[in-house]
Amino acid sequence: MSFSEALLRVRGQLAFLLALVCSTAVIIYLEALDAEARIRDQVVAQVAVTGELPDRSTGLSKSARDALELARSDFERDPEVPLHQAALLNAVVLATANGVDTADALLGDAGRVLAMLEQGSGQQVRTLAPALGLLATAVPELEPRVLALLNARAGVFE
Fold this sequence. Notes:
By secondary structure, the chain is mainly α. It is built from nine helices and no strands.
């Protein structure tokens, strides 16, 4: 058997080894890129230069602003309706996540709903428990007040 005949017989194994070497080289190259670190460095550089985080989707920000305005108008029209209260709390969470409006204005909106709930019934608090949980998660400075309200009025966590 000559050398060329031997190469013909092992061509499948040679193709497999060549593919293995190429795929290993590609994986090592991609691991070396560390795309997350580059993205992180770009965000840090942008924050250092502009002082602001990169803009999110303008469509989502506009939707958050529209939802906040609608929830505010519904709540002003009839603040006793639990649906309007929940909508305003959820709109505050969405606006907080998207940087819509000032923190003081958003805290004021949430504070008005919380003040009404603190004077209202436990059943109303129980109905709004999911929205209150989201609010406490998104706005940590309101967490103690929300937890006290949930425990005292509705016994949600008892």
